[in-house]
Automatic annotation (TrEMBL):
InterPro entries recorded: 6-hairpin_glycosidase_sf, 6hp_glycosidase-like_sf, GH116_catalytic, GH116_N, Non-lysos_glucosylceramidase
GO annotations of cellular component type: endoplasmic reticulum membrane; Golgi membrane
Reactions catalysed according to its record: beta-D-glucosyl-(1->3)-O-chenodeoxycholate + H2O = chenodeoxycholate + D-glucose; a beta-D-galactosyl-(1<->1')-N-acylsphing-4-enine + H2O = an N-acylsphing-4-enine + D-galactose; octyl beta-D-glucose + chenodeoxycholate = beta-D-glucosyl-(1->3)-O-chenodeoxycholate + octan-1-ol; a di-trans,poly-cis-dolichyl beta-D-glucosyl phosphate + chenodeoxycholate = beta-D-glucosyl-(1->3)-O-chenodeoxycholate + a di-trans,poly-cis-dolichyl phosphate + H(+)
GO BP field: carbohydrate metabolic process; central nervous system development; cholesterol metabolic process; glucosylceramide catabolic process
EC code(s) of this entry: 3.2.1.45, 3.2.1.46
Pathway(s) where this gene product acts: Sphingolipid metabolism; Steroid metabolism; cholesterol metabolism; Lipid metabolism
Organism whose genome encodes this protein: Rhagologus leucostigma
UniProt subcellular location: Endoplasmic reticulum membrane; Golgi apparatus membrane
Name of the protein this chain belongs to: Non-lysosomal glucosylceramidase
Keyword set includes Transferase: yes
Membrane topology type: Peripheral membrane protein
Domain of life from the UniProt record: Eukaryota
Gene name of the encoded protein: Gba2
């Protein structure tokens, strides 16, 4: 409940080091609007409010923003208590000098607190409000002033304006648009409990002296994107039935409606410059943050993907890179994304226009890998049972990419995976490794569910595929980028162990489940560390995506000589899983220092940068993969969960 609330709390600790008492006032001012041109559209107005409940009183100003689409109310407020007074200015012109507000404040440390509503703004006019908290701080004493911001936009339309969506918090605070006072009151009377919970969550990591301080900063601060990634968390309408969500072919997902009804629908953008929700090839990396911290939101997101898998969209569309026309979404294939906020997400998927992703090799595999990983970490066997037929369907679709029936899929000679500008021919370390990991997890899921026929089918594929992978790609030190024999095929790809990364995260990396020989994995990781990390920018910028064997970055594509921060964090996690803890931290540290310190891109971590002068796509989803480093560290410390067969999930009639 509390994670869904549209509130922020600003706590000011005031210490008086003097020998006499001091009067202190802190003012919070805010413009009515979002800083967009609609702020001047006219008809916006403000009014003061107070709310007393359970012996606690909160006072402030409501700023009603009466836009034609997605109207909302902002609230600025402060907590009134013994010795703390709250005053306000209902409306002033934020485009002016603010003289009237400052003079009012400086006169006596308080604001005038006029009663009644302000007049609605004229067209072209903007308005703002201010609230002020004041107290007397005794000599050598200490006081706390508590202020809050709430924003109540309960009902939203996306760009197409076809459907009205209710935000998650309306479940608890109603959808009439009058919740801002109650939200403000709730925030100011609950934040201390939130602080205790945050400390209980963070302190075991912050107080662990064996973890470097930059890592603690990166781990928690990269989570900014969970809320700042254009994030939406919606309720399923109360009158919604299973058929509304399932589409023509989703009837097999028996827990779809209970899960979405209980936990809502969650989506976040690929990046602030990449306006597609839940971009799945990238979410594969970022999903560790969701499954480790809000596991039910990951499961809800997976149900949304599963529904899309089993349905289709036959509309034709032309794709930019190849000029060909194909249908938007074919059946039994994982979508690239669940839509564009400028259109109607969930309803119309695959907003991505570069390639026809039905021919991408990684999306289907990344669904299977996440399903087992989620089950392993949550023990939710109802989820596993629902996802099992979908996993079988996407793997059947994927099998067509094994052209020569050797148990290993082949890439198709274009950039047919998440590296969407880096061409791959034939068998490849990245997609081939993901394929074998997914085949292994199919065997494991079949074993858990007692499906011996499917288990045997994928065991046979796995045995053939492992032999083909080693024969076609292993060169004695690492796995070649691909098997084409072209100039770039012997490049050292930093992400060549992505399949092993997921296997290790699920405890499927040894004994009967050893897909890639341990000695080969270690040799590949050591080669990557030596070449892609230490031989690139003096070892100070993480791992370059592609490195030639002679120590020169691979310049065969615009992406091969980039560093992808989210990939580096996942590589570091893989190193930690394999016992290369120091190397893992050294690798990831280069990215943290580059982004958060040298480039000054704190809280807007980009997808990529190059050694010199170039960065790309600020505020991006993939770096949330740093949470896989934390999972790897917890597994090494023996804290990670062991899978059980207990049926869990929402229990509904």
């Amino acid at each position: 409940q509390d994670s869904s609330l549209p509130v922020g709390v600003f706590i000011w600790e005031v210490e008086n080091g003097r020998d006499e008492d001091v009067e202190v006032s802190i003012m919070f001012s805010l413009q009515n609007g979002t800083g967009a041109k609609e702020d001047r559209s006219g008809g916006h107005w403000n009014e003061p409010f107070t709310l007393q409940k359970d012996g606690e009183r909160v006072a402030g100003v409501l700023l009603h923003h009466c836009a034609a689409v997605n109207p909302f109310t902002l609230a600025i407020s402060a907590r009134e208590k013994a010795g703390t007074g709250v005053t306000h200015v209902t409306a002033f012109n934020p485009a002016g000098l603010g003289r009237e507000v400052w003079q009012d404040l400086l006169q006596d440390g308080k604001l005038d607190s006029p009663t009644g509503k302000s007049s609605p703004t004229e067209k072209g006019e903007v308005t703002a409000a201010a609230v002020c908290a004041s107290c007397r701080v005794p000599a050598h004493g200490h006081k706390t002033l508590e202020l809050a911001l709430a924003w109540d936009m309960p009902c939203v339309h996306f760009g197409s304006k076809e459907k009205l969506h209710l935000r998650r918090y309306t479940r608890f605070f109603g959808s009439k648009g009058d919740a801002a006072p109650a939200l403000s009151h709730y925030a100011l009377t609950h934040y201390e409990e939130w602080e205790r919970k945050i400390e209980a969550w963070q302190n075991p990591i912050l107080e662990n002296s064996q973890l470097p301080s930059w890592y603690k900063s990166a781990l928690f601060n990269e989570l900014y994107f969970m809320t700042d990634g254009g994030t939406i968390w919606m309720e399923v309408p109360p009158d919604c039935c299973a058929q509304d969500l399932q589409g023509p072919a989703g009837a097999g997902l028996s827990h779809l409606l209970p899960v979405l009804r209980e936990y809502g629908r969650f989506a976040y953008l690929e990046g602030q410059e990449n306006r597609m929700y839940n971009t799945y090839d990238v979410h594969f990396y970022a999903s560790f943050a969701l499954v480790m911290l809000w596991p039910k939101l990951q499961i809800s997101l997976q149900y949304d993907i599963a529904v899309t898998v089993v349905n289709e969209d036959v509309q034709p569309r032309q794709y930019l890179m190849c000029g060909q026309t194909a249908q938007v979404k074919i059946k039994n294939v994982v979508p690239h994304d669940i839509g564009d906020p400028g259109d109607e997400p969930w309803q119309r998927v695959n907003a991505y226009l570069m390639h026809d992703t039905a021919d991408w090799k990684d999306l289907n595999l990344k669904f299977v890998l996440q399903v087992y990983r989620d089950y392993y970490l949550t023990h939710d066997s109802l989820y596993l049972q629902d996802m099992w037929p979908v996993c079988q369907a996407v793997m059947e679709s994927e099998l067509k990419f094994d052209m020569d029936n050797d148990g290993l899929i082949e890439n198709s000679g274009f950039a047919d995976q998440t590296y969407d500008a880096w061409v791959v021919h034939g068998a490849s370390a990245y997609c081939g490794g993901l394929w074998l990991a997914a085949v292994c997890m199919m065997c494991k899921m079949a074993e858990v569910l007692g499906d011996t026929e499917v288990q045997q089918k994928y065991l046979d594929i796995l045995n053939k595929g492992k032999e083909a992978f080693e024969r076609r790609l292993w060169n004695g030190k690492y796995y070649n980028y691909d098997s084409s024999g072209s100039g770039a095929s012997s490049s050292i790809m930093s992400d060549q162990c992505a399949g092993q990364w997921f296997l290790g995260a699920c405890g499927l990396d040894q004994g009967e489940f050893e897909v890639f020989p341990k000695s080969h994995v270690l040799s590949a990781l050591k080669t990557i560390f030596e070449k892609n990390v230490l031989s690139f920018a003096g070892g100070t910028m993480g791992a370059v995506n592609g490195m030639r064997p002679d120590g020169v970055p691979d310049a065969s594509s615009v992406q091969s000589n980039e560093v992808w921060i989210g990939v580096v964090y996942s590589l570091a996690a893989t190193m930690i899983q394999e016992g290369m803890v120091e190397e893992g931290f050294r690798t990831a540290e280069g990215c943290y220092r580059t982004v958060w310190e040298r480039l000054g891109m704190a809280f807007q971590t980009p997808e990529a940068y190059r050694e010199k002068k170039v960065y790309r796509s600020l505020a991006y989803m993939r770096p949330l993969s740093i949470w896989s480093m934390q999972l790897a560290l917890e597994r090494r410390a023996g804290q990670a969960p062991a899978p059980t067969e207990l049926p869990q999930g929402p229990t509904h009639p």
